[in-house]
Amino acid sequence: MEWTDDGAPASPLYRDRFHAGAPLAQARAVFLAGCDLPQAWKGARHWCVLENGFGFGANFLATWALWRADPERPSRLHYVATEGHPVAAADLARYLAGVSAVEPELSPLTEALRAAWWGLTPGFHRLDFESGALRLTIAVGDVAAVVPEIVGRFDSLLLDGFSPDRNPAMWSPPVLAALGRKLRPGARAASWCVSGPVRRALVAAGFDVHRLPGLPPKRERLSATYAPRWTVDIGSAQSDARSSAVAGLRIAVIGAGLAGAAVALSLAQRDAVVSVITAGRDVADGASALPAGLMAPQHSRDDMALMTQLTRAGIRSTLQRCNALLRPDHDFAPIGCLQRFDAPHGWQPASIEARDWTQEADARDGVPPGHDQATEFALWHRRAGWIKPRRLIEAQLQAAKAEIVTRTRIEWLVRDPQADLWRVVDADGRIVMTADRVVVAAGPATVRLVPGLTAVRAVAGQLAWAEHEASIRNPAALPRNGAGHWLPAVASDDGGPSLWLRGSTYEPGDAADEALWRTWLADVCRRDADVASAVDSAERRGVLRRFIGVRATTTNRIPRLGVVDAGPMEGVGYLTGLGSRGLSLAVLCGETLAALLAGEPCPVPRSVLRLMQARTPLRPSPLEGGRS
User: Distance between CA 78 and CA 27 in Å, rounded?
Assistant: First the structure.
């Protein structure tokens, strides 16, 4: 970004400048007024804004400030914006400092946006503010590609690209038509641009367009209403802004691991009343009961693989929730991790922003000094770290104010069509509860309650862990990933010696073999001196422990989630197949499923959502339900 003599930012790529003058004046006079805000959202439970061209976030800040100051505001505000070239963090900080200088009362907002502005690589990124009541989703990429990927129905549209003669792609008829298809009938749109081709393209896309007096030096501004002359299918999953598909409903969540807890809180944040049922003796049973786990992004050579984008988005969501609910350095620690390779990894970052996530380890940037693990073939994942799954699960369920039912294996889900309720039935035929909606997030057992899930299988995993000797308080080794993970120092719950963990085996099925574990551990010790030393010390003291967990995974590593859309199980939500990436993906997947159930914009692209929803045709199910 370049800065003009009068302090306005300008893009050398498009040879155009951003609006000069009071930073938020255009946002208020053109965009908020053009969309009739705040009057338009009065009486709505949630409101969804779509912006084409986020830029420095002036329209977002103005919308946020207006929403925050309105006592009759919707309880939730979704703001989704496209952006082809996210501004550099330093340029954003300079711009936001100017906003705060003019309007000091906005300093908490500008500081929150500045702190969240990192790692915006190609793909979707959801940033949470106001304890999750305000959600900003940035869709980074070419506008013609990202607009069709947005899933949601919107109430306001802000058209704020550079001038059509400098950036015609932002204003092309196909893009404007695609944006129109994201709106509910009656939605308002606004822009500073009143050019004839743009107005004609909007009319062709279904808008009633009006020119109004503009903000000087512009003589006119544009205001439009989406009023297509054809039938619009808004889809069963998209609720009207004045209602919510889950508010006030009792929702039964089957499963109390990372997936179940994540979706339970996301639903509770949307005003649902949540009950969580588990077959275990307590929450966080099974694979979620391990002392700690590693959260790390998926590496790909070109930095653009689907799982690279998905795990980055997932880690951002997990970190936001951990920062809100957990104690840093005790319950979680995003201290980074090292990934070593036996040959050159050939990593090519897709953008400058990628280095907010990953760096070449031999450059030493972001790697704590004094460590010797960095090699010629290594990457340093800056946002990785360890988390205690039980702490995260318990904190989410507590925040959700969820009713907990333990030691209860659910055998049947039976729909009562007359009452429009679900009966949740155990193996003895006892009705455990009735609920308006049901979500199944029970790991491998999910496939037995929800017919038609494809390519989901159980995989057992074993790891080794122990406490360090009392004299070793803070081992110097770094967390590592690749061919299993190594956590050299996890804070204990009672202030005693820290823990180490080394994982993990992958054994198809739900049974684990101790002999295989011993063979695996011996092999690991031969190849890793740090692990060998820790294991030797633990065995001498008789404290070496073996952990067994069973994961639900998929053949393509893409989690499975969605809402059954036909048949006797219609309306049941499901989430499974997180594999060994539950800490990285559960929060994002829970948010995605909650968004589908609530009729809100999704935090993942449409193409990814379709992969997550992959199911086979429904097979007949006894008792008009599904069996576990």
Answer: 17
Amino acid at 522: A
414-to-254, 272, 287, 450 alpha-carbon distances in Å: 14, 21, 28, 12
Q: Are 403 and 216 in contact (CB under 8 A)?
A: no
Q: How far does Cα 193 stand from its chain's mean position?
A: 33
pLDDT in tens, 185-194: 999 999 999 9
pTM assigned to the model = 0.92
User: For residue 531, what are its two tokens?
Assistant: 């692990």
**Other Cβ atoms within 10 Å of 24 Cβ, number:** 22
Residues with Cβ < 8 Å from 487, sequence gap 6 or more?
Answer: 292, 294, 386, 479, 499, 500, 501, 502
Exposure string of 207-245, with b = 16+ CB inside 10 Å and e = fewer, is bebeeeebbeeeeebbbbbbeeeeeeeeeebbbbbeebb
List own/partner pairs for 11-19 with CB under 8 A and 24 or more apart.
11/85, 11/162, 13/85, 14/162, 14/166, 14/167, 15/166, 16/162, 16/163, 16/166, 16/167, 18/55, 18/56, 19/58, 19/192
Question: Quick count: other Cβ atoms within 10 Å of Cβ 510?
Answer: 15
- Amino acid letter, 118: W
How many Cβ atoms from other residues are within 10 Å of residue 516's Cβ?
13
The first and second tokens of residue 530, run together, are: 């740090």
- Under the banding of pLDDT at 50, 70 and 90, the label for residue 5 is confident
